[in-house]
C-alpha cells in the first residue's frame, strides 16, 4: 500500500491534465483519512477493499467521469452504489446487471476539495456503505431478560 501511495503522489505531481484516475484519487483519499498509515492493510484483497470503499465515498463527494466511446470525450456519469459496487481497487464499477464501467476519472480540482474535506472529517464511510436494497439487515439478537425484582 505504501508503494501505491508513492505512485499516486508521483502521478498527482506530474499530471498534465485536469483529470486523475479514480483509483489514484481513492488511494489519496484513503491515506488522507488514515494519516498515511497502512497498519490495517494485511493483504492485497484488503488493499482493494479499502480503495473500493474510498471510491464509494468519493462518488458521493464529487463527479466521476468516463470516456464516451462514440465521441471519445469524457462525460460525467452517476454511479449508483446501491445498484453496483467498485471493484479491483477502484478500477472498475460493476453494476447489478453485470455491466462493467472502467477508466473512471475525477477532476483534479474537485479531488483537491474532497481531500480537504476528508482531511478535516475523514472518509465519510456512512456515505460509502449502505445495505443493499434487496438485503435485509440481520435482526439484532436479543438477550434474555430476567424479570426485575421489586
Q: How does this model look, in words?
A:
There is one protein chain. The chain is globular, with a radius of gyration of 19 Å. The protein is built from five helices and seven strands. Helices cover 41% and strands 18% of the residues. Strand 2 (64-68) and strand 3 (73-77) form a beta hairpin. The strands form two sheets. The chain has a four-stranded antiparallel beta sheet. A three-stranded antiparallel beta sheet has the order 4-5-6. Helix 1 (2-14) crosses helix 2 (22-34) and helix 2 crosses helix 3 (44-61). It is an alpha+beta fold.
Strand order of the largest sheet: 1-7-2-3
**Number of E-state strands:** 7
The averaged pLDDT comes out at: 77
Shape: globular
Uncertain regions: pLDDT < 50 for 5+ in a row?
126-148
Relative strand content: 15-25%
Alpha-carbon Rg, integer = 19 Å
Q: Span from first to last CA?
A: 59 Å
How many H/I helical runs? 5
> What is the N-to-C succession of helices and strands?
HEHHEEEEEEHH
User: Main sheet, how many strands, which sense, barrel?
Assistant: 4 strands, antiparallel
